[in-house]
Design brief:
Length: 456
C-alpha cells in the first residue's frame, strides 16, 4: 500500500463504512477529514465522540471550504454524481471506496461474491464452509461488516469472504479477488445506474483485475452471465448450473450436487434434498458457494457438511413464528422484484404478501404476475404502493384483495386479521427500505417484533 502518513484524505459519508474507513486511515497515520450532508445532531453521540478521538476533522451539512485532498473515500450509498464527489473528480482527486481502501491495506486474500440476488446467503454459506474447515477467514462487505474494520484485526492468513454490491464496485481501482463469483443479473438500482447495460458493466468489474491463476465463478443458467463470461473474464472461467452436467464447475445431475475441478474426477457432495435452505434460487446459491469454496481450496468434506447443515441467513425467507396456524416469514432482504419473486415461489402456503417501499424505478409487472395462484392478499406500504397496486390490477389481481397500509404495524395487524390457518404472511417488499427504515435489517427486525407481539 502507498504510504498515506500525514496525507490529507476526505471520507465522504460517515455511515457504517465511513466510520470503518476513518478507523483504518487513522491507524495508518493519515490526516483524516470527514464530510456528511446530514446535520451533526442526527448522528449517534458515540460516533461523534469516536470521530473526535480519532482526530477526524468533520464537516456536517456543508462541504469543506478548501478542497485540497489527495484522495476521497466515498460511501457506497453516495453516487458519484453527488456534488462533493463531482468536485473531487473535476479537481483530479482520486475517488475510491472503503472496499478498495481495505484491499490496498492487504491485497492478497480476498474471495468476492456479487450478483443481483443471493449475495448474502452465498457469502454466509462460503463463510460457513471456511469455518467448518478450520480455515482463518472473516465474513465482510455488503453483508454488514465493513472490510476496513476486519483488516485491522484479522489474522495475517485470514481470507476476506466478501459480499460486494454494485455501489462498491463503482469505486474499485486495484481490487483483485483470487476467486470472484457473479450469481445472476436482473434489473436493479436503475435509479442509481441509469441503464441496465451500465449496471451489468459495473457488476462485471468484479473480474476486472483478475489474471491467469485466478477464478471467475459464474451462473451458466443466467443468460446475461453466460453471455458475457468469455469477454469479461481474464482468469479461469468456472460455471455452475442447476440444469445438467458440466465438464468443470458445480452442477446438478440426477438430483445430486456434484463438483469437478480442472482435470480432476467429479465429487458427489450431497443430494438436492439434503439442502436446508428452501427454493430453486437457494439451489443456485448452494452451487455457487460450493464452486467458490472448492476453487479457493476449501476441502470437500467441509463443503459437504456446510451444504447439509446451513440453515440460511436472517431476513431471507426467515421463519419467524407460527401463530394460530399461520406462518410468519421475514424476507426483508427481498429488496427488488426478482428477489421477491423467488421468495413467493419458495413458499408453498397461500400467501398474504407485505410489499412496497423506496422507489428504485423497478418494473413490477413480473413481480405481480407471480401472484397468480399464490398470493391471496396484498398489503402495501411506502412510496411504491400505488405503482405496485396498478401493476397488480393490470395482471388481474382482484381489487378487493389489495390493502393500503400506513406503516408496518398496520400491515402486520391487517395480515393477522385476514389470515386463516394454513396461510403464510410473507414480508418480501420488492423494494429498498430507505425513507421508512435505515436499512433492510431494521425493517426486518421491526417486522419480527410486531409478529412476536401478536403472541402475547
Amino acid at each position: 500500500m502507498k504510504n498515506i502518513q500525514r496525507k490529507k484524505i476526505l471520507i465522504a459519508g460517515l455511515g457504517r463504512s465511513g466510520m470503518a474507513a476513518a478507523r483504518l486511515l487513522s491507524a495508518q497515520g493519515a490526516d483524516v477529514y470527514g464530510f456528511d450532508g446530514k446535520a451533526e445532531d442526527v448522528f449517534p453521540v458515540e460516533d461523534i465522540r469516536e470521530l473526535e478521538n480519532l482526530d477526524v476533522h468533520c464537516f456536517f451539512g456543508r462541504e469543506p471550504d478548501i478542497f485540497d485532498f489527495v484522495q476521497v473515500v466515498a460511501s457506497p450509498g453516495m453516487p458519484l454524481t453527488a456534488p462533493v464527489l463531482a468536485n473531487a473528480s473535476r479537481k483530479g482527486v482520486e475517488i475510491i471506496g472503503e472496499l478498495e481502501l481495505a484491499y490496498r491495506s492487504r491485497p492478497s486474500a480476498f474471495v468476492a461474491i456479487t450478483g443481483t440476488n443471493g449475495k448474502t446467503t452465498t457469502t454466509a454459506l462460503v463463510g460457513e464452509m471456511y469455518r467448518l474447515a478450520g480455515m482463518p477467514h472473516r465474513i465482510v462487505g455488503n453483508i454488514g461488516m465493513p472490510v476496513a474494520d476486519q483488516i485491522l484485526t484479522a489474522e495475517a492468513e485470514a481470507v476476506m469472504v466478501t459480499e460486494v454490491s454494485s455501489f462498491q464496485l463503482e469505486t474499485i481501482v486495484d481490487f483483485r479477488p483470487h476467486v470472484a463469483a457473479i450469481l445472476n443479473i436482473t434489473p436493479d438500482h436503475l435509479d442509481r445506474h441509469g441503464r441496465l447495460e451500465e449496471y451489468i458493466r459495473i457488476k462485471f468489474r468484479i473480474f476486472e483485475n483478475q489474471v491467469e491463476g485466478d477464478y471467475c465463478i459464474y451462473n451458466a443458467d443466467d443468460a446475461i452471465c453466460a453471455g458475457l463470461s468469455d469477454s469479461a473474464m481474464k482468469g479461469n472461467a468456472i460455471p455452475f448450473s442447476a440444469r445438467g452436467p458440466l465438464v468443470i464447475g458445480a452442477y446438478v445431475e440426477d438430483e445430486r450436487i456434484l463438483i469437478a475441478g480442472k482435470g480432476s474426477a467429479r465429487t458427489d457432495l450431497c443430494g438436492v434434498k439434503d439442502l436446508k435452505i428452501p427454493g430453486a434460487h437457494n439451489l443456485e446459491n448452494a452451487l455457487a458457494a460450493a464452486a467458490t469454496a472448492f476453487f479457493a481450496g476449501v476441502p470437500t468434506v467441509a463443503i459437504r457438511e456446510a451444504l447439509c447443515t446451513f440453515g440460511g441467513v436472517e431476513h431471507r425467507i426467515e421463519s419467524v413464528a407460527r401463530i394460530n396456524g399461520v406462518a410468519y416469514i421475514n424476507d426483508s432482504k427481498g429488496t427488488n422484484p426478482d428477489a421477491a419473486i423467488k421468495a413467493i415461489q419458495a413458499v408453498s402456503s397461500p400467501l398474504l404478501l407485505i410489499a412496497g417501499g423506496y422507489e428504485k424505478n423497478a418494473d413490477f409487472d413480473p413481480f405481480t404476475a407471480a401472484f397468480e395462484g399464490r398470493v391471496q392478499h396484498l398489503l402495501l406500504l411506502g412510496e411504491t404502493a400505488q405503482r405496485i397496486a396498478q401493476s397488480a390490477r393490470t395482471n388481474g389481481f382482484p381489487e378487493s384483495s389489495i390493502h393500503f397500509c400506513r406503516d408496518m404495524a398496520q400491515c402486520v395487524a391487517e395480515a393477522a386479521r385476514l389470515a386463516r390457518p394454513g396461510d403464510a404472511v410473507l414480508l418480501s417488499p420488492a423494494c429498498a427500505s430507505w425513507g421508512m427504515y435505515n436499512n433492510f435489517e431494521e425493517r426486518g427486525r421491526h417486522f419480527k417484533e410486531l409478529v412476536h407481539a401478536l403472541e402475547k
